[in-house]
Design brief:
It is a single chain. By secondary structure, the protein is an alpha+beta fold. The chain has two domains: about 70 residues, no CATH class; about 190 residues, Beta-lactamase (3-Layer(aba) Sandwich). It has nine helices and ten strands. The strands form three sheets. Strands 1-5-4-10-9-8 form a six-stranded mixed beta sheet, sandwiched between helices. Strands 2-3 form a two-stranded antiparallel ribbon. A hairpin with a 4-residue loop joins strand 4 and strand 5. Helix 3 crosses helix 5 and helix 3 packs across helix 6. The two termini are about 20 Å apart. It comes from Nocardia terrae.
Length: about 300
């Protein structure tokens, strides 16, 4: 899978679009995004390009980098990939950090696969982000080492090749799994493949019923199934992030967003994600989704 991390460098016209997607498929008068040269490998074969890669840079990426991002008081990241797609497009100056409660998604899938008796804890862990319920799911998987490996195996199954789930707590007051460093791009790969994993419906159905108190950011988009995660670093400054699947033309598109507000405030973090979600909502008609391979 190819990852294109886009920097704030834009051009107009068909030639710029060709640089991004590797083929010239059409022309637009809208500004389009040019990736940093280090992301382009001329010798590599041209992959199948999801339609969203061609439509995203036309307006959403431009508005994000040139209009919205300069006004946001903090580091931010946005990445998109259609379900079934293979080309990650990531924008912004934030790239990686603890998964916090977004890691409850693969954890819950692992626990429900192990036992249907975990259903009540699964509901509370996903819909209400209840930490005690998530700990119950973690413990149901076995020893900390077995639990960590089981959740990590779900990540690998979901297309995340790199993320390591720790067995031991790295911070005494927080779960081991929540402190796993989960990059924007790896989280996106997993999210885009999540609907295609066996028994994933049991988790995504819960992601469509998130508590009203947590329906900020991606949760404001119609039809979104999503999960948020948030928590402070050792200095007390919050990271706020979300993963989600949004219905668009052609199927679903996976979107992950994150911010570290300059103030360190959780409320400022949710406000920033709200502004990003508002921008996404203005451009949903440009995005193309995807579906799972036949047989899911």
């Amino acid at each position: 899978m190819e990852v294109v991390r886009v920097k704030a460098r834009f051009a107009r016209g068909c030639g710029a679009l060709a640089l991004l997607v590797g083929v010239l498929t059409g022309c637009t008068s809208k500004p389009v995004l040019v990736p940093d040269k280090t992301t382009v490998n001329a010798a590599a074969p041209t992959p199948t390009i999801p339609a969203t890669v061609m439509s995203l840079p036309g307006t959403l990426a431009w508005d994000f980098v040139n209009t919205l991002e300069p006004t946001l008081p903090g580091k931010v990241g946005l990445a998109l990939l259609p379900v079934g797609g293979d080309k990650v497009v990531a924008i912004g100056d934030w790239s990686s950090g603890p998964g916090w409660s977004t890691m409850k998604v693969p954890l819950t899938l692992a626990a429900l696969r192990k036992s249907s008796g975990n259903q009540v804890a699964a509901v509370n862990a996903i819909e209400y982000s209840d930490n005690s319920a998530a700990d119950t799911l973690w413990q149901s998987l076995g020893s900390p080492e077995v639990a960590a490996q089981t959740v990590q195996d779900v990540l690998r199954e979901g297309g995340d090749p790199d993320t390591t789930v720790p067995a031991a707590r790295t911070r005494a007051d927080y779960s081991a799994f929540g402190q796993a460093d989960w990059s924007l791009s790896d989280q996106l790969k997993f999210t885009a493949k999540l609907p295609c994993l066996p028994q994933s419906d049991a988790v995504t159905s819960l992601m469509g019923k998130i508590s009203s108190t947590q329906r900020w950011g991606l949760g404001t988009l119609e039809g979104a199934v999503f999960k948020g995660g948030w928590g402070p670093d050792p200095s007390g400054n919050y990271l706020v992030r979300q993963l989600g699947l949004i219905p668009v033309d052609g199927g679903q598109i996976a979107i992950v967003i994150a911010t570290q507000p300059n103030s360190g405030s959780f409320d400022d973090g949710t406000a920033i994600l709200g502004k990003i979600a508002n921008l996404i909502s203005e451009h949903l008609d440009e995005l193309k989704g995807g579906t799972c391979p036949t047989g899911k």
